[in-house]
Amino acid sequence: MTTMDDLDRRLIALLRRDGRASLSDMALELGVSRATVRARLERLQHSGEIVGFTVVTKSDHATSPVRGLMLIGIEGRGADRIIRQLRGIPEVTAVHTTNGRWDLVVEIGTGTLEALDRVLAEIRRIEGVLVSETNLLLATRKSA
To answer: What is the H or E stretch that residue 94 is in?
Structure first.
């Protein structure tokens, strides 16, 4: 894996802000040549540091206006099985392993609070889910 330097991190931050920015615009903002930006992008893609590009549409946010983070504590060693079950729930948009008090952080998106409540109840019924805590996401100030 390639070690990223400050220029790589600034380049990725620019792409997160505007994935369609031209090489010339990014070069100007970063204070480097267009060829440098192209070479850095190619290197970051080849090394696997950048694994892909995507589009976020207005409807992506509109279809799941109720979003939350569910923190889950797991009993025993059932994490892999529980993660597989969570992946099968359409409203679960991401599952993260973590350290500390919680074993998993689950991102959930639904159309209504009632739907969110239904998903939370479904997750709590999974065998091995010992304890959970859920926080609603009220506003997004910055998105990756």
So the answer is: strand 92-97
Looking at the DSSP bridge assignments, the partners of residue 130 are none
Contact in structure between 100 and 71 (CB atoms under 8 Å): no
The model's pLDDT over 79-121, given as tens digits with 9 standing for 90+, comes to: 999 999 999 898 998 999 999 999 999 999 998 999 999 999 9
| CA–CA separation, 33 and 99 (whole Å) | 41
pLDDT tens digits, 36-82? 999 999 999 999 888 887 776 666 666 678 999 999 999 988 899 99
- Under 8 Å between Cβ of 69 and 106: yes
**The amino acid at 75:** E
Q: Which domains are seen in the chain, by residue range?
A: 6-46 (1.10.10.10), 59-137 (3.30.70.920)
Tokens 């689950």 locate to: 106
